[in-house]
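Quick check before the chapter quiz. The format below is the same one you will see on the exam, so make sure you can read both the input and the output lines.
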Amino acid sequence: MLTRSGSQPTLSSILTRRANAEEDTDSEQDFVNDINNSIEKLRNTLLKEIKSLQQDFNQAILDMRQTIDVLTKENDSLKERCDTLERRVAKLEQQSQQQDILINKQERFSRRNNLRIVG
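Here is the expected output.
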């Protein structure tokens, strides 16, 4: 027989049962019912907490998905912009090299036709 205070019945609980002419089975059944009710209340409380946590996690996951989607789109946009700028820089470098070649050629022609008068 178990009681609330431990594995052995207390003296006061035994005397109370005897004074009230209660049987041990009634007292044990009441104790079992109390324990079952307490367990059920705790179970319900835990279930509510778990559901609340689950909703919080679901909302957090949804927020993260939205943030990831936005960041992915922004990243794609920036990659495209970077590629465009890299192509423009390559084109400008090529034009600069061509202009350097033409400038050098023009400089050689302009020196060839110059006359120096030494006096």
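If your answer matched, good. The radius of gyration is 46 Å.
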